[in-house]
Amino acid sequence: MHDAAACLVADGELVAAVEEERFNRIKKTNRFPAGAIRACLDLAGVAPGDVDAIGYYFDRDLVDLGLGNFHVATPVQPVRWGVDLLQERLREHFDWEVPADRIMFTRHHLAHAWSSFARSGMADALVVVMDGRGENVSTTVHLAGSGEMRELKSYSVPQSLGLLYQEAIGHVGYGFGDEYKVMGLAPYGDPATYREQFRSLYALRPDGEYDMTPPIPDINPTVAPFYEVGFRARRAGEPVTQEHKDFAAGLQETLEVLAMHVITHWARRTGAKRLCFTGGVAHNSSLNGLLLRSGLFEEVFVHPSSHDAGAAEGAAIVAAARLGTPHTRVERLVSASLGPDLGTSDEVERTLRAWDGIVEVERPADVVGATAELLAGGAVVGWAHGRSEFGPRALGNRSILADARPAHNRDRINAMVKKREGFRPFAPAVTPEAATDYFDLTATEADHGFMSFVVHVLEDRRAELGAVTHVDGTARVQVVTPAANARFHELITRFGELTGTPVLLNTSFNNNAEPIVQSVHDVLTTYLTTEIDVLVVEDFLVRRRQPVTMALDDLVLKVRPMTRLRQDWRPGEEVSGEVYLDYSFGPSAKVSPTVFNLLAAADGESTVAALAGTLTDEVREELVSLWQQRFFALSPKP
User: How many CA atoms lie within 13 A of 599 on its CB side?
Assistant: First the structure.
C-alpha cells in the first residue's frame, strides 16, 4: 500500500519507526519496506528471530480480496495470498522464516486508533479515525479507555471525506498526495464563490449523519456541479487563477463542515473531554486548528504520523495484545525522532570529506552559535542532526532553516530551493517560552511540537513574522521543547538572543523531486542541487568550493535501481531519447544523444569524465538538471 513503513514496538514502547521512502527515495512508496524493517531492527539491536509477531495494518480478507482481484485481472501472474507474500518477502530480504500464525492482520481503522491513543498520554478519549478508506469504512468513531477501544460508529466508503478531497483536487491541477498543497491555497480564495456547488454534494442529517449525492457511475462525483457552471479545470503547471483559489477555499470549507458535523455530535453524545484525531484527514492542520478553536474538547492529540505509515504501529500494538501482552501505554510521545541517525562523528566527517573536491568542511568550536549567526545574517541553512523524524514533517532534525522575519525568505525558498508554487506557506518553529507572545494557541491543550495545528499569529506580530505568516494571518506552528529536541531548541534560543525574535522558518530538507533526506549522502545531494547557502551536518559546517557544473568530471555516476532508458523514432525522423523512473507516476525527461549514451554506459564505478570525455557547458547543465530530478546519483570516487 502507499506510505509503506515499518516500526518496532517493545513492551508497549515505540522503539523505532521510519518510512520506506527515506531509503528507496520514492515519495509515498508502495514497495515492500525492507529498508525500513532493517533500520528498525538495527536501531533496536535485535535480530529477526527476536521478533515475536508481525502486525499488518489491513484486514486479511481485504488483502486477499485485493489480491484475488489482481489474479483475475492478470492471469499470467502466479497466485499469491497475503500471508504467502509477507512470508516470501521476509525470506527474500532477511532469510527470515516467519510462521503463518505470527503474521497478524488487523482492521485498518483499529490500527490507526491504537497508534494514536497509545501515544496520547490520555487515560480515556474519543478516538476519531478519518481517511480515504479502511476496509469498507471511511470514518470510525471509538471510545477508548481502561485498555479497550470500543467502536461507536462507522461511516461508509461513499461518505469518505478523504476521497472527496482527493477526487476534487484534480480540478486545480493536483493529484494523490497533494492535498496539503490545496489546503495551503485555500486561504487565498473565497469559499462563497462555489459554496452552492459544493453544498450540492452533501446533505447534513441529525445525529452526526450526512448523505453524499449519489454519483454517476464511473464519474468523479465532484465533476457534474462544476461542469454545469463552466469551471475550467487547471492542468498541472498552468497558472493558478482566482477561480482555482476560490475552488480550494470551497473544498476546504466543505471538509471542515462535514468533519465538524461528525466530531461535534460525538463529542456531545459521549461527553468526552479529550480527542485523539488520526487518519490521513488528521494531517489537514487547518481543520485541526478549527478543532482547537471550537472548544469542544479540553485536550486534542494528533499523532505526527497520522497517515497510513503510522498505522503500522497500531498493527504492532494489536498483534502484541493477541499474544497476551496488554495494551500498555507510555507517556505522551514527546519526539518523532524515531528513525536512523547519520552515523558516528567519524563516519559523518569521513563522508563529508570524501566530497572535498566540491565542498569545504569546517568543524567550529560552537556549531550552534555559528549557525545562529549565519541565520541572523540572512543565510538559508540545511540542518541535519540526530535521528530522522517519523511522519511527513521535518521537526528540526532534517530541516531547511531561515530567518522567519523577512517576507522575501518565503518567496526565495519556494522558488530557489523547494522549486514549488509561491503560495505555499512555511512553518514557524518557536521556543515554549516565547510561543504565546507570537501565537494564539487557544485554551484547548494540545501538543504543538509536531506541526499539527494551524493557529492565528497575533495581529501585532504578523508583520514581524513575514516569512511564516500565511495570507489569512495564520501559521502551522511548531513549539520546540528541550525534551523533544535540545539542539534545535538551543539554536532557536541563540537566534532569538541575536535578533530579538526566537522564531525560525522551518521546512523539510528536500527539493520538489524527492522525499525528506535520510543519510549524509542524501543531505549533500540536496544541498548541491539547490541554492541552500550553507549546510550544517551534526558538528560540521559545509560550503561549496565551486559551482557543481564545474565539478562533475570526477564524480561517479550511478543509475538508480528504477532508472530506465528508452529510444523512440519514426522512419525519417531523428532518434528521441528519454530517461524515466520505473514506478507509478514516476517522472521522465527527454535527453540529448550525448547524455543518453553516457547514462547507458554508466556502471556505477566510472567517473563522468571517463564516460563522456570532454563535457560541453550544455551537457553539464543537462546533467545537473537531471541530477536535481534524481534520475541518477553522483558521488565521489572511492
Answer: 28
